[in-house]
């Protein structure tokens, strides 16, 4: 998907994107949460998604053949709606490509594919409370803050 002003191309990730996705995930975790990820664990996690479409899929945004950004889509089944919510995760836009419509192109692609499928009732994501830049970007694309707070418990890793 592209437009004449900014030639952002969006495609599904391939096995050859493994190293880039692993690298982008590490950059994103460090930048947004000051977390150092274990490279072997991230590599295994990304490889699992690339090998098992039931886990989700990565989208890659390119400008002039260079990878500019990525995101991961995972599924959540909604028994209330008898359809899937798609969760956007692992969003990263390389610093040299920020403010050039990369995330906007990824978002438009996600919405287009979700609507065509017919079994996706909505798209959700979570964002760090202090990541105001990302929050503004999501609002500018028509997303709104949900009424849910997120709670979690982590087991290892």
In short:
By secondary structure, this protein is α+β, with helices and mostly antiparallel strands. It has helices spanning 18-33, 39-51, 102-117, 132-140; strands at 8-12, 57-63, 66-78, 83-93, 120-125.
Summarize the structure in words.
The chain has 157 residues and is of the alpha+beta class. The chain contains 4 helices and 5 strands; from the N terminus they run E-H-H-E-E-E-H-E-H. It has helices at residues 18-33, 39-51, 102-117, 132-140, and strands spanning 8-12, 57-63, 66-78, 83-93, 120-125. The protein has a 5-stranded mixed β-sheet with strand order 1-2-3-4-5. The longest helix has 16 residues, at 18-33. The protein is globular, with a radius of gyration of 15 Å. It starts with 7 loop residues before the first strand and ends in a 17-residue tail after the last helix. The mean pLDDT is 93.
């Amino acid at each position: 998907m592209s437009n004449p002003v900014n030639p952002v191309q969006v495609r599904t990730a391939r096995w050859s994107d493994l190293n880039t996705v692993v690298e982008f995930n590490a950059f994103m975790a460090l930048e947004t949460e000051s977390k150092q990820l274990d490279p072997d664990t991230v590599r295994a996690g990304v490889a699992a998604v690339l090998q098992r479409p039931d886990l989700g899929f990565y989208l890659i945004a390119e400008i002039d053949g260079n990878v500019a950004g990525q995101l991961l889509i995972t599924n959540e089944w909604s028994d209330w709606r008898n359809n899937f919510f798609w969760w956007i995760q692992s969003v990263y836009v390389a610093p040299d490509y920020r403010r050039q419509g990369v995330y906007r192109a990824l978002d438009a692609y996600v919405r287009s594919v979700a609507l065509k499928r017919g079994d996706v009732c909505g798209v959700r994501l979570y964002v760090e409370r202090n990541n105001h830049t990302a929050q503004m970007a999501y609002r500018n694309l028509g997303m709104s803050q949900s009424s849910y707070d997120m709670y979690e418990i982590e087991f290892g890793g």
